[in-house]
Amino acid sequence: MELGNLKDEKKKNHIIQNAIEDSITIANETAESGEFFEAGELLFSVTELLESIASFQSTKLNKLIIKFWEKQISSFKLQGKLHEVAETFLRIAELYEKVNDSKLYKKNLLNSINFLKQESKILKDFDDIRKLAQNYENIAELYLKTQDIKNAKKFYLNVINIAKDYQYFDLLSYSYKQIASCYQELDEINKSNDIIYDGI
Questions:
Q1: Residue 12 phi/psi, 5° resolution?
Q2: Among 31, 41, 113, 198, which lies 20 to 30 A Cα-Cα from 97?
Q3: How far apart are CA 36 and CA 31, in angstroms?
């Protein structure tokens, strides 16, 4: 029986409610074993599926997803897993973007940036240059999402400088394109053109 084809709304809602309750039970069991991220991912997937077949939005599930992911962040912090903390904050930000909460969306993006910056300091100390350049690129992307063009431009320049020195050509072209668009956003057309010519 396909849920999308059910005409009886009462039956459809009953099936959806059972799916939600079963998913929450499984997610709670998963969380009890310390796998908070996976518990949140399970509920996120269920929410996505239900939204695609029956215009469904669950504040209850979203709050539970965020609760699991925040617990996972605490666990990752204790383990010193800075990159994983940053990725989890990004997932939370994406969830807030989906429910149109721009304040919490931006707050979680900035949290993600802060942890990527912390990780970048460590990568620099350990001379892991390629990963450092990739982190700078991720930071620049997140700054773009927060509409902070100046900081995005700064981190794309970091990527370009590292990529030139170490011949990471795969990182160069994208960063040149992105920084050129940053200059355009700031109405610095001549600098945008200069950076494009420099990239060529």
A1: -60, -45
A2: 31
A3: 5
Give 43-98 pLDDT, tens digit per residue: 999 988 888 776 666 788 899 999 999 999 999 999 999 999 999 999 999 999 98
**Cβ proximity of 95 and 79 under 8 Å:** no
Over residues 121-140, the pLDDT tens digits come to 999 999 999 999 999 999 99
51 near 20, Cβ under 8 Å? no
Please state, in angstroms and as integers, the Cα–Cα distance from residue 186 to each residue in 46, 142, 146, 181, 183, following that order.
Answer: 41, 17, 15, 9, 5
- Return all residues near 44 (Cβ < 8 A) that are at least 6 apart: 65, 91, 95
Structural contact between residues 177 and 200, judged by C-beta atoms closer than 8 angstroms: no
- Domain parsing of the chain, residue ranges: 1-79, 106-199
State the pTM of this model. Answer: 0.86
Question: Residue 142 above 80 pLDDT?
Answer: yes
Phi/psi of residue 16, each to 5°? -60, -45
Tokens of 133: 């350049």
CB 52 within 8 A of CB 16: no
